[in-house]
Specification:
About 55% of the residues lie in helices and about 10% in strands. By secondary structure, the protein is of the alpha+beta class. It has a four-stranded antiparallel beta sheet, with helices on one face. The chain has a two-stranded antiparallel ribbon with strand order 2-3.
Length: about 325
């Protein structure tokens, strides 16, 4: 129990230092080959700190969901916890980097950050799945500590500074809302949740109002946004971008020690709000068309022909006057 207490009591301090942006030097050799798992009479291969990590994946499809298992262990020497080996058993499954499809253009499923993502998946697992790691020093790693390990490990793999802070922010926001145990008091945990909800709701509402202002329309419930006002459209765009930075930074003060995560999450949401909505509409349209094509190919072709015909008519009218 001492290991658990030591990790948990220091997790908030580590998260606080992370939120202040303490630089982490890249040390690639912290990742190394973790050997193989024991199986029956086979004792497996021990970790080899002198060998490069070997990521060998086997693909699985379970209920239409693509997952992967690790054929070899991945070893990581954490700066605070010592050696971590993943997975702990052959039952471990991962979806690589857990990124919604809308954001894979920003953070792809694989890349330099993949070893760190596999490590994090094993440390936190899913809501219904057990964690799958072995700590050489007997540490029990809570979610807050796992997020810090993830951030440091991404630095060691050479992941870009901006990308790793964006990814760390995403997993930190997830940690705030998940039901798994965290090393925070109940009051502090709820304060983070309230701060996150207030930040998201405020940005969505101001984004809605700013869009109404930009198009000079009075939308239901929208308010006048003073940093845009009745100005030329390009001035309003510049003002909107300025507000998308300043307002989230102010709201991040509600997040306390996690204010860095609050600032990054808020600015990303505000700046990419319209892009995300556009991508969501495109993605939903694509999924609807895929479903239609599966159910009735003739109907899908008929719809495609109608769209082409309509486009030709509109093109002709607008071109020929």
């Amino acid at each position: 129990m001492r290991s658990r207490d030591r990790v948990s009591s220091g997790a908030d301090k580590v998260a606080g230092r992370a939120s202040m942006g303490a630089p982490v030097p890249q040390q690639p050799r912290r990742f190394y080959d973790g050997g193989t798992l024991p199986s029956g009479s086979d004792p497996g291969e021990p970790p080899d700190p002198g060998a490069d990590p070997r990521i060998v994946l086997e693909r699985h499809t379970e209920e239409g969901v693509e997952t992967f298992s690790l054929e070899r262990r991945l070893a990581y020497l954490d700066r605070h916890l010592g050696e971590l080996l993943v997975p702990a058993d052959a039952g471990f499954r991962t979806d690589l980097t857990s990124v919604p499809a809308l954001f894979t253009w920003l953070v792809p499923k694989t890349g330099a950050h993949l070893p760190a993502a596999l490590l994090h998946d094993a440390l936190v697992a899913g809501r219904a799945d057990p964690t799958s790691y072995v700590s050489s020093e007997g540490h029990v790693v809570d979610r807050v500590t796992a997020d810090r390990v993830f951030r440091d490990a991404m630095a060691d793999t050479g992941t870009g500074v901006i990308r790793r802070w964006i990814v760390w922010t995403a997993v930190t926001v997830a940690t705030i809302f998940v039901g798994r145990a965290v090393p925070w008091s109940r009051a502090r945990h709820w304060s983070y949740r309230v701060a996150a909800v207030v930040t998201i709701a405020t940005i969505l509402y101001l984004g809605y109002s700013s869009t109404s202002d930009l198009f000079d329309r009075v939308w239901v419930g929208a308010v006048d946004v003073p940093w845009m006002g009745q100005r030329p459209w390009w001035v309003e765009v510049v003002g909107g971008l300025a507000g998308a930075v300043v307002v989230p930074l102010a709201l991040s003060l509600l997040w306390g020690r996690l204010r860095m995560a609050g600032a990054i999450a808020g600015v990303m949401l505000a700046v990419l709000l319209h892009v995300t909505v556009g991508l969501a509409v495109i993605g939903a349209s694509y999924l609807a068309l895929e479903r239609l094509a599966r159910r009735s190919a003739s109907l899908a072709w008929g719809l495609a022909a109608l769209v082409v015909l309509g486009s030709l008519v509109v093109f002709a009218v607008l071109t020929l006057g």
